[in-house]
Design goal:
The structure holds two protein chains of two kinds. Helices cover 9% and strands 42% of the residues of chain A. Chain A contains twelve helices and 63 strands. Chain A has a seven-stranded mixed beta sheet with strand order 5-8-2-3-4-1-9, with no helix packed on it. In chain A, strands 10-13-12-11-17-14-18 form a seven-stranded mixed barrel. In chain A, strands 19-22-21-20-26-23-27 form a seven-stranded mixed barrel. The radius of gyration of chain A is 63 Å and the shape is elongated. Chain B folds into two domains: 36 residues; 164 residues, Butyryl-CoA Dehydrogenase, subunit A, domain 3. Chain B contains seven helices and five strands, in the order E-E-H-E-E-H-H-H-H-E-H-H. Chain B has a three-stranded antiparallel beta sheet with strand order 4-3-5. A two-stranded antiparallel ribbon of chain B has the order 1-2. In chain B, strand 1 and strand 2 form a beta hairpin. Chain B is elongated and about 70 Å long. The chains are: A mainly beta, B mainly alpha. At the A-B interface, helix 1 and strand 3 of A face helix 1 and helix 6 of B.
């Protein structure tokens, strides 16, 4: 152990690995230091108008949503022109800081159309940066509003419009009501148009084609017309803030970036189609955007614009036609204004009445054209047969009046023109009825209502209610099957005229008639033959003597109807006869009621007139009268128009009554009808007044109780005579009757007219009674019928048969009564005794004694007496 | 006066406190390696202290929290946090934070540096003062982690959302490192060196 040297203790200088730690710390610290230095932002100054919403240390700077810096301080600008915002922008964003870089403050904006900057609501306002392109700069002036900038991806296209409308930046672009983009920027161009830059989102970019149409959808689109009401809007947002919608044809190529489009005011304007121009003299109620072009009922286009060419009398309507109908518009195409048609058959094109007028397109072959003239008058449909009707008087026919064949409308009047004082109606007949138009077709005007009224009833013929509004024209197809080559036809006034014209026309017969009473006759009034109009009143004039001269025209082929024995009378008005026989209303025709008219007929019994006269009535025309005078002392029961009858038939009437100067006699002027006066205006003719008489034996002329008395007449056989005595009782016309006189102390119940009975059979009457001049007797004249006169013999006895003969006895009672009538009116009975030979037959004016009573044996007499 | 165990050729197992002779390299009882004095204690302590000192700068200059509410995120350093607490009339809490986050770490480092400098350059410093300084450093050192606890709780509570978010900033990492380094520095310092020096001088 001695040798063992003491161990040298060598202090080991060891550097502990722990020293790496501070080195690491230093390295880290140095790196942090470098990092802090290198990341220190770029200091910039931005001058804002106001510091509102900007907070130092909090307000950030963003570029495309990326945080690129923060506001470090906000200070007042030295000259108080605003506030200086000092901001630190990250070094990597340094290249955004160019001289024309734009800064603006983004604040939360909440409006009904957009809530933008909502992020700013949470994150606070921030400053947005739009980099420029100039040199680096570090002091800027902020914009007060977000600039119109296009940023981001998507298809940018340009729209140009006449005005801004209600569009704004941010207004949405809709495609099928889906928002696919928005308006990014707008600006006014030098051409005073507004240009919009819009951006379509990338995923929708393919929807915009090279021929896409954009239109404004701002607000409501209200289309109120007779077709209905349509209110549409794109979306509520677009109603308020405006919007743009577009459509695209599927096949077209996709639009290129930056392509320019026109922004139309509305959907209608945006319609694509071939543009045509229609020139016209008047605007004719066409309305841009409303007036449609109609082809066979289909809507193929519309009037997009109506412009005045500056001369104020020429308008040009621009119309857009759907592309597929382009070929309809060629050099021979006609454009016709559609007018409303209102008829009772229906209402057509009523839209044209109130709303915008429409234009009908009538296409034909030809070269394509774009310039057209608007025709006001409609053209006949294709294939129809057009022709012209001429007339002097249209009588309510107007354009649109139908052409009717057997009640079926087969054509129409298109237009009416006046040419040389006569009218020309251009008309057509529908193709399917064209065969009805033959060489001898005739046309006439149908009056809307033809009324024929007579006692058989009233016949009303009407062409239908529509006839009142549009007078129809009736076609009478001729017998011929040959279709007409003529283009002109005559329109006749009525069916008769039309029918007449079918015959070989004769020259009309002109007649001059006189009348003292014009009635309601007017020029043009019909002349009727048995209610068929065969002529008309041409003219009339008042003559100096107060008469009226009427010129008639009888149509040629009816001239044979006027002969010597023809009589004319007024057919005007109604003739009403009211009597106990009934009520009779007579009128010729309603037309003659209004217009007046003349009827005529032939009467065989009448002779030629020296001067043709228009009578007031048919009766006056046909009756030839003979005036007679009837005089009587007893005017009771005599009245005007008192009929004169023969065997119940009227043969005349009292026309006038007048007293003689001394009032003793009444003279009744009466007229006897033709031909009765031949027999009754002769000597021997008898006239007596018939009154009602009621007796037990007969009831006579009861009707006179109501109707008044009448005059009975018996023909005479003597010379013509015109003055007669009017008898008060039935004259004895039995020439062979026997007149005998009875004298009696009293008249008893006898009366004039009391019967004379033979074997209780009436053989005569008491026809006269008179008092003996000395008053001692009363004389009654018996009138025994001629057939029984031989029964009265010289020895005949007469007794008074009036009253009841009552005999009372023990055997009983015997009551005898000649007749019930004699009980009341009294009567005379007679008997002739049976002597052989018989006594002589009585002579006229023999006198007999009237016994007051009879002898029983008289009743037993029953001789056979031969006449 | 007294003789140290080292002078008597003895050394102590730091793990089971068994005394043994100098020759023993391993503890007879716990078989752990045994040193007379902790090896390179001063050197290690210096390294930790220097690293902690370096870390002190980012810990205080860099934001310890990032508060994102509206607008730009708010970066708070420890000191700015203390200031805003004072502004918000929370002086008590401000003091706690200030002491725990700024005063304590700085004091720890200053204390250690003073002890080690006095040993290294044989400055006249009372051994008792040295050991008192050390004891204080050892006791308060762990409280410096308070800040980080609070921060971690805040992060957990204000889970990052769109309205309010709290994140730990780089300063928090640095601060945590500073606290750990000071702890290690204090731990690696073998207090017996203080008296060894005195014995050598004698």
């Amino acid at each position: 152990m001695n040798n063992a040297s003491a161990p040298e203790i060598k202090k080991e200088r060891v550097i502990s690995p722990i020293w790496l730690l501070p080195i690491l710390a230093i390295v880290l610290g140095a790196w942090l230091l470098f990092k802090a230095w290198s990341e220190a932002g770029v200091k910039i100054d931005i001058v804002f108008e106001s510091a509102k919403g900007i907070t130092a240390g909090q307000t950030q700077l963003f570029y495309q949503g990326l945080d690129i810096g923060v506001v470090k301080s906000v200070a007042l600008a030295p000259k108080l022109e605003g506030v200086i915002v000092k901001a630190e922008v990250k070094r990597e964003a340094e290249q955004l800081l160019k001289a024309d870089s734009q800064f603006w403050l983004v604040t939360p904006k909440a409006s009904i159309t957009e809530i933008s900057g909502l992020d700013a609501l949470v994150s606070g306002n921030y400053i947005e940066l739009n980099p420029g392109t100039g040199k680096y700069d570090d002091s800027f002036v902020a914009l007060s509003e977000p600039p119109n900038i296009i940023r981001g991806k998507g298809l940018n296209v340009r729209l140009s419009a006449d005005d801004l409308g209600s569009l704004n930046i941010g207004s949405a672009i809709y495609f099928k009501k889906i928002k696919v983009g928005e308006v990014q920027r707008y600006q006014l161009t030098d051409e005073h148009k507004v240009e919009f830059d819009i951006q379509i989102r990338p995923q929708f970019a393919h929807l915009v084609k090279i021929d896409t149409r954009f239109w404004n959808v701002s607000g409501f689109e209200a289309d109120i017309s007779l077709d209905g009401m349509q209110i549409s809007s794109e979306s509520l947002a677009s109603v308020i803030s405006g919007g743009v919608s577009f459509d695209s044809p599927l096949q077209s190529a996709i639009a290129t970036k930056g392509q320019s489009f026109t922004l139309y005011d509305n959907l209608k304007d945006s319609h694509r189609g071939k543009a045509i121009q229609i020139s016209m003299q008047q605007q004719n109620g066409l309305v841009a955007g409303r007036s449609k072009l109609i082809y066979r009922g289909a809507n193929i286009g519309f009037v997009s614009e109506i412009i005045n060419n500056g001369s104020h009398d020429q308008f040009t309507a621009k119309a857009l036609v759907e592309p597929k109908y382009e070929d309809l518009f060629n050099s021979s195409t006609q454009l016709v204004l559609i007018k409303p048609e209102i008829s009772l058959n229906g209402v057509k094109n009523i839209g044209a009445l109130v709303g915008a007028k429409q234009i009908e397109v009538i296409a034909d072959q030809g070269e394509l054209a774009t310039q057209f003239e608007l025709s006001l008058a409609p053209k006949p449909p294709q294939g129809s047969k057009a022709f012209t009707l001429t007339t002097d008087n249209v009588k309510g026919v107007s354009s649109g009046s139908p052409i009717v064949y057997n009640g079926l409308t087969i054509g129409k009047v298109l237009a009416l023109t006046l040419k040389n004082r006569s009218f020309e109606l251009s008309t057509y007949i529908a193709p399917e009825f064209a065969s009805l138009l033959t060489i001898n077709s005739r046309f006439y005007n149908q009056s809307p209502l033809a009324v024929e009224a007579d006692l058989n009833g009233i016949t009303v013929e009407s062409s239908g209610l529509s006839g009142f509004i549009q007078s129809p024209i009736i076609l009478l197809p001729g017998q011929s099957k040959k279709s007409s080559t003529s283009k002109t036809f005559r329109l006749h006034h009525n069916k008769q005229a039309a029918l007449l014209s079918k015959e070989k026309a004769l020259a009309p017969l002109k007649l001059t008639l006189k009348t003292d009473y014009l009635g309601s006759l007017a020029e043009g009034a019909p002349v009727l033959y048995r209610r068929v109009p065969v002529g008309k009143v041409d003219s009339y004039q008042l003559l100096k003597d107060g008469e009226i001269e009427v010129e008639l025209e009888i149509y040629g082929n009816y001239r044979y109807l006027v002969a010597d024995n023809t009589r004319f009378w007024h057919a005007s008005g109604l003739e009403i006869k009211a009597s106990l026989e009934g009520l009779s209303v007579n009128s010729e025709s309603l037309k003659s009621l209004v217009l007046g008219g003349i009827s005529f007929d032939q009467f065989d019994e009448l002779a030629k007139e020296t001067q043709r006269t228009i009578y007031k009535s048919k009766q006056l025309a046909t009756k030839r009268h003979l005036n007679i005078a009837l005089s009587t002392q007893d005017s009771h029961g005599i009245y005007n128009n008192m009929p004169i009858k023969y065997q119940g038939q009227q043969i005349g009437k009292v026309t006038q009554l007048g007293f003689s100067e001394d009032l003793s006699t009444l003279t009744a002027s009466a007229e006897l009808d033709f031909p009765y006066y031949r027999n009754f205006a002769r000597s021997g003719s008898l006239y007596w007044q018939e009154s009602a008489s009621i007796s037990l034996s007969e009831v006579k002329n009861l009707d006179t109780l109501v109707k008044g008395d009448f005059i009975n007449a018996l023909p005479g056989k003597g010379k013509p005579l015109q003055t007669f005595k009017l008898l008060k009782e039935v004259p004895n016309t039995d020439k062979g009757s026997l007149h005998v006189w009875l004298s009696s102390s009293h008249f008893g119940s006898l009366k004039i007219g009391s019967p004379v009975l033979y074997k209780q059979y009436k053989v005569g009457t008491v026809d006269k009674a008179k008092l003996e001049l000395d008053g001692s007797k009363i004389l009654a004249r018996l009138n025994i019928d001629s057939s029984y006169r031989h029964l009265v013999r010289a020895n005949s006895v007469f007794w008074n048969a009036s009253g009841v003969d009552v005999k009372l006895g023990l055997g009983g009672a015997d009551i005898r009564l000649d007749s019930m009538e004699t009980l009341l009116t009294g009567g005379i009975a007679f008997a002739t005794p049976e002597t052989t030979p018989l006594a002589e037959s009585a002579n006229d004016n023999d006198k007999y004694q009237l016994q007051s009573t009879y002898d029983e044996k008289w009743l037993q007499w029953s001789p056979s007496i031969q006449p | 006066m007294y003789t140290s165990a080292k002078q008597m050729g003895l050394k102590l197992c730091r793990h089971c406190k068994l005394s043994m002779s100098e020759e023993q390299t391993h503890c007879q009882r716990c078989h752990m390696r045994v040193h007379t004095r902790a090896p390179n204690s001063l050197q290690k302590c210096w390294a930790f202290v220097i690293a902690a000192t370096v870390g002190l700068f980012p810990a205080n200059l860099m934001p310890i929290t990032v508060l994102s509410t509206r607008g730009a995120p708010q970066y708070e350093t420890i000191m700015s946090g203390v200031i805003s607490l004072i502004k918000d009339d929370m002086v008590g809490i401000a003091i706690v934070v200030f002491v725990a986050s700024i005063v304590v770490p700085v004091m720890k480092l200053v204390g250690l540096i003073v002890i080690m400098l006095s040993l290294q350059f044989k400055m006249n410093l009372d051994n008792r003062q040295r050991i008192v300084i050390y004891r204080i450093i050892d006791i308060i050192g762990k409280w410096s982690m308070l800040d980080l606890f609070v921060l971690s709780i805040m992060i957990a509570v204000f889970e990052r959302n769109n309205l309010v978010g709290v994140e730990a900033g780089p300063g928090a990492t640095a601060f945590g490192a500073v606290v750990l380094l000071t702890l290690f520095a204090a731990k690696s310092f073998d207090t017996r060196i203080i008296w060894d020096k005195q014995l050598e001088q004698r």
